[in-house]
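Exercise 7. Given the encoded structure of a 350-residue chain, write a plausible sequence.
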């Protein structure tokens, strides 16, 4: 299945059904009076999070969605049925924007969550609604109201526990394939990964979701190489696993390029918990590893982990470090919820 994380679609809710002009025509009923029913309401357009989806590819080949018009009213005081709704099934993590692609309408983050994008028009009144003491036989009925129409943008931001970042060919896909059942494309040239990939990491009956985003380049926060869209996929991650290619000469410069892009992009990426790991150490001597870990640790101001996605060396330690960060983040969120639910002491009241 192809991956698509952005799509522009046109939506239109249904028009309301028209009211009916009708009169009773029965034997022995000389003045039957009006009995025209109301029109039905037009259908709505809803966006709903569906389980099992991880792409917006369904909206590449179909961009127009229109709800049904409400049924017109009928005689004998029969109201028309409401028009059928249109439900847009989207993956968890989908954001919906106005046509300007900047004004946020909805952010759907849980399975089953729904949002109404366009309300159907109300049905028109039948002539039975206009009967009065001075007008016993009204010949008037209302048409249904028009529905709403608009263009909107759907933008998917993957929901994962940890996001893999690094320059192209840093070994992110190799690591994801070695710790999960995901099978991203792997090759020894830059930009092998062109779309984000998700993998579920399992250790001792515990799991977390890891996201591998395509390699970032300098200027990614400005959209170079679609970097701004790729960075959006790690906004929701609890932590960032920053892989640095150990076979490169300037490991500090490479680290700073990615770190600068995270901070310039904003949206809290610069403040997220970061694990820094020197990758591809199977191709280095012990002296090279020691020297590069030392200079990289001074540059980032934290412990540098050592691993090799190809040989699995050091991978387990990284995985358990990630579990620790996820547990700490869940505890922090639980503490915030508990603190917010504490009753406020208003003091003594006379």
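Solution.
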């Amino acid at each position: 299945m192809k991956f698509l994380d952005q799509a522009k679609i046109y939506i239109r809710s249904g028009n309301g059904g028209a009211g009916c002009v009708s009169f009773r025509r029965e034997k022995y009923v000389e003045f039957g009076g009006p009995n025209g029913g109301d029109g039905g309401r037009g259908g709505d357009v809803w966006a709903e999070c569906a389980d099992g989806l991880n792409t917006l590819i369904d909206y590449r080949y179909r961009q127009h969605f229109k709800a049904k018009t409400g049924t017109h009213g009928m005689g004998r005081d029969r109201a028309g049925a409401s028009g059928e709704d249109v439900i847009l099934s989207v993956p968890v993590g989908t954001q919906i924007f106005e046509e300007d692609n900047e004004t946020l309408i909805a952010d759907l983050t849980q399975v089953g969550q729904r949002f109404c994008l366009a309300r159907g028009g109300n049905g028109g009144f039948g002539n039975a609604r206009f009967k009065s003491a001075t007008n016993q036989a009204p010949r008037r009925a209302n048409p249904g109201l028009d529905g709403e129409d608009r263009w909107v943008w759907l933008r998917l931001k993957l929901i994962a526990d940890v996001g893999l970042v690094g320059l192209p060919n840093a070994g992110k896909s190799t690591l994801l394939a070695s710790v999960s059942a995901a099978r991203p494309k792997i090759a020894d040239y830059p930009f092998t990964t062109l779309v984000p990939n998700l993998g579920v990491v399992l250790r001792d009956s515990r799991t977390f979701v890891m996201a591998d985003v395509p390699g970032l380049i300098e200027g990614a926060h400005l959209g170079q190489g679609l970097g701004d869209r790729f960075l959006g996929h790690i906004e929701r991650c609890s932590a960032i696993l920053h892989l640095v290619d150990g076979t490169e000469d300037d490991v500090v410069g490479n680290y700073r390029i990615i770190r600068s892009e995270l901070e310039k992009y904003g949206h809290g990426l610069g403040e997220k918990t970061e694990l820094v790991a020197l990758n591809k150490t199977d191709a280095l001597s012990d002296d090279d590893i020691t020297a590069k870990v030392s200079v990289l640790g001074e540059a980032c101001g934290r412990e540098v982990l050592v691993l090799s996605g190809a040989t699995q060396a050091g991978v387990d330690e990284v995985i358990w470090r990630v579990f620790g960060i996820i547990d700490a983040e869940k505890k922090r969120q639980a503490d915030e919820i508990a603190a917010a639910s504490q009753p406020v002491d208003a003091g003594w009241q006379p």
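Remark. The mean pLDDT is 83. Students should compare their own answers with the one above.
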